[in-house]
Amino acid sequence: AVYAAQHSFDASTIEPNIACPHSVDNVRPLSALAGTRIHQAFIGTCTNGRLEDLQAAAEIVRGKKVATGTRLLVIPASAEIYAAAICHGYIQTLLEAGAVIGTPGCGPCMGNHMGILAPGEVCLSTANRNFKGRMGQPDAEIYLASPAVVAASALRAEITDPREML
Question: How many structural domains does the chain have?
């Protein structure tokens, strides 16, 4: 194919971004949000419950524990991914860190069950939506981030750059 231009970037210099409440378009650099307290960290659903997402999370939490007072909920996207994650040891690693593993599917993403947020709670999620009431109470706040950011943040109970843990 012929292109008008080619651009090269050093990906190691690109800072992770986070979508802030209550819109996926409300994006800020992770450094601007570092230290924000979270009550729940959620990895999964159809958007970020892939095998490579569970692997990334397991690599971050291996040998560590989820912070006291913080929930780490992991829901693989499908039964096939769940089985593969078990075979690769990712589920065991996540469990040893203190994660709760849910059955494959939507989970709290749709605000009906399995980890819905209480009034005033803050969740850092890998889901694809964060509008008011999406994961439970309308006054809960939902931030959206990558599985690595969510896993690292679960260990400190605050939004954390995963590059600090690698």
Answer: 1
